[in-house]
């Protein structure tokens, strides 16, 4: 598969979730996203609202990040506050322990609580931390996300020691959710070849902080 620079940019959530991010760095991220033509920027909720010009670039943020070990009410409130501050999309982290325990009802409940606290037109992505889960646990978490009304499942925070996205996990997630739910690969995508491999495996969105380098290596339109 060959994906041109402009087409590949539309897969990318241009991401800055570093703990030392500053308003100036977020403004620079926004300017770079506009220049590159990425789908969105993804920043921490404390960086909202975005005041820099964004044009058509969307705003994504995170909830329950990065551990997922937050009270359900806190995740839901964080998502609601983020949407009120201009977030178009929220990437929430599940309580991975629920997946490890096989607690399908618990997973559905916490995802549904966040989904229910967001405006209908806003998009919810569910981060399952796939590198920390078995194949069966990945499938369980993905199916819970679909049942709870999420529009996307996402591999990773990029902060877990188990690692980030793999093509195996992306393919399994795609098989688990079917063709109508988004799959976002995130964590460790730093070059063009890896980005294309994730898309070939079934990703419909990519979370990248190295967007400029990835797109520089893509074929021109």
Quick overview:
By secondary structure, this protein is an alpha/beta fold. The protein has helices at 5-9, 23-36, 72-84, 96-100, 104-116, 135-148, 167-177, 192-201, 211-216; strands spanning 12-16, 40-43, 58-63, 89-93, 123-127, 152-154, 182-186, 205-208.
Which helices and strands, and how do they pair?
Blueprint: H1 5-9, E1 12-16, H2 23-36, E2 40-43, E3 58-63, H3 72-84, E4 89-93, H4 96-100, H5 104-116, E5 123-127, H6 135-148, E6 152-154, H7 167-177, E7 182-186, H8 192-201, E8 205-208, H9 211-216
Parallel strand pairs: 1-2, 1-8, 2-3, 3-4, 4-5, 5-6, 6-7, 7-8
Helix pairs in contact: 3-5, 5-6, 6-7, 7-8
Largest sheet: 8 strands, parallel, barrel
What do we call the CATH topology? TIM Barrel
Taking the alpha carbons of the first and last residues, their distance comes to 15 Å
As a percent range, the share of strand residues is: 15-25%
What's the oligomerization state?
Answer: single chain
What would you call the structural class?
Answer: alpha/beta
CATH class: Alpha Beta
Order of helix and strand elements from N to C terminus: HEHEEHEHHEHEHEHEH
User: How is the largest sheet built, in terms of strand order?
Assistant: 1-2-3-4-5-6-7-8
Going by CATH, what is the homologous superfamily? Aldolase class I
Rg over C-alpha atoms, rounded to the nearest angstrom = 16 Å
For the record, the count of structural domains works out to 1
The total of beta strands comes to 8
Task: Tell me roughly what share of residues is in helical segments.
Answer: 40-55%
Mean of pLDDT: 98
Number of helices: 9
Overall geometric form: globular
Name of the CATH architecture: Alpha-Beta Barrel
Low-pLDDT ranges: none
């Amino acid at each position: 598969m060959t994906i041109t620079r402009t087409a590949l940019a539309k897969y990318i959530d241009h991401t800055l979730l570093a703990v030392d991010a500053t308003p100036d760095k977020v403004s620079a991220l926004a300017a770079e996203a506009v220049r590159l033509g990425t789908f969105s920027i993804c920043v921490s909720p404390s960086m909202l609202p975005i005041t820099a010009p964004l044009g058509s670039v969307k705003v994504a943020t995170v909830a329950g990040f990065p551990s997922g070990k937050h009270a359900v009410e806190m995740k839901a409130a964080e998502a609601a506050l983020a949407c009120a501050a201009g977030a178009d999309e929220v990437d929430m982290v599940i309580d991975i322990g629920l997946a490890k325990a096989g607690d399908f009802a618990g997973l559905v409940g916490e995802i549904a609580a966040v989904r229910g606290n967001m405006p209908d037109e806003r998009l919810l992505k569910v981060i399952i931390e796939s590198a920390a889960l078995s194949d069966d646990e990945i499938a369980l978490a993905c199916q819970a996300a679909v049942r709870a009304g999420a529009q996307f499942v996402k591999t990773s925070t990029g902060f877990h020691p188990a690692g980030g996205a793999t093509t195996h996990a992306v393919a399994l997630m795609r098989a688990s959710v079917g063709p109508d739910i988004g799959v976002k690969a995130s964590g460790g995508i730093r070059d063009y070849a890896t980005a294309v491999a994730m898309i070939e495996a079934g990703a419909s969105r990519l979370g990248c902080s190295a967007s400029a380098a990835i797109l520089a290596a893509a074929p021109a339109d």
